[in-house]
Amino acid sequence: MRKRRGASTVRLGGFAQQLRVLTARYAQVLLGDLSTLLILLLQAPLIGWLCSLVWGEMERETPALYFVLVLSAIWFGAINACREVVKERAIYQREALLGVRPSAYILSKLLLLGLLGLAQALLLQIALEWRLALAGPFLLQSLILFSASLSGVGLGLCVSTLATRQERAVAAIPLLLLPQILFSEFVVPAEAQGDLVAFGEKLMPLYWGYEAFAESAALEVDWGYLFAALSALTLGGVALALLPILLLPLTARAPL
């Protein structure tokens, strides 16, 4: 049994078969809009180049640079994902009636958006290090930025699952990123933070991404703390990325 809409076809079967077909279809969608894909990819080297101009003038990196890099990675993931469910709401509603699983549908998005986030993380670093060599292992810092991007993808997919229109999903992204900046030591120093701000800061992917990146660039790395921060960032990102699987069946019943 299969469902056809235009050139796209979904064959119903087990989870693995659905995931394979949905991933292949989503890859065709992404590659079919090369201009948008190139714009998303070019964001990363552009921001990396701008960072190299700012910090290259100082001829040294600072903690603020690590903060900007992690924030940029979260932004990439969120903006990449925020429209990807809501724009296909009508398609998914029809396919869900035929047995398409929410888990296969969301994971098909997550796999390719994760690859896109990884490419952006690498392009961001390469553009930055073309002029300013960062302290710390390149691949480890790539992993940290990728994990931050995964958190952004999770946020974006949650927004996209709950939103009723694409423009509303895009407009919600700054509202999700702003608290991560406000609940940080760069706005309120640690010694001046109240209990609420200190607790809120620990819930933010930006906090754990910054902590991991800053520790990776330290002269004497505390590997235990770095692993703990990276684990918190990664587990939080995975949880955010899988949350839409629970939300999708609820929102799929809503009228368009």
**If you compute it from the alpha carbons, what radius of gyration comes out, rounded to the nearest whole angstrom?**
19 Å
Helix content: over 70%
Largest beta-sheet details = 2 strands, antiparallel
How would you sum up the global shape? globular
- Beta-strand residue percentage: under 5%
Structural class: mainly alpha
How far apart, in Å, are the first and last alpha carbons?
A: 26 Å
How many domains make up the 3D coordinates?
Answer: 1
Order of helices and strands: EEHHHHHHHHHH
**Order of strands, widest sheet:** 1-2
pLDDT < 50 stretches: 1-9
Total of DSSP H or I helical runs spanning 4+ residues: 10
Number-wise, the strands total 2
If you average the pLDDT, what whole number results?
86
Question: What brief labels describe this structure?
Answer:
256 residues, two-stranded antiparallel sheet
What does this protein structure show overall?
With 256 residues, this protein is mainly alpha-helical. It has one domain. It contains ten helices and two strands, in the order E-E-H-H-H-H-H-H-H-H-H-H. It has helices at 15-32, 34-58, 63-81, 89-97, 102-129, 138-162, 166-182, 195-202, 205-216, 223-251, and strands at residues 2-5, 8-11. The chain has a two-stranded antiparallel sheet. A hairpin with a 2-residue loop joins strand 1 and strand 2. Helix 5 packs across helix 6 and helix 9 (205-216) runs antiparallel to helix 10 (223-251). It is globular. The two termini are 26 Å apart. 37% of the residues are buried. Mean pLDDT is 86; it is low at 1-9.
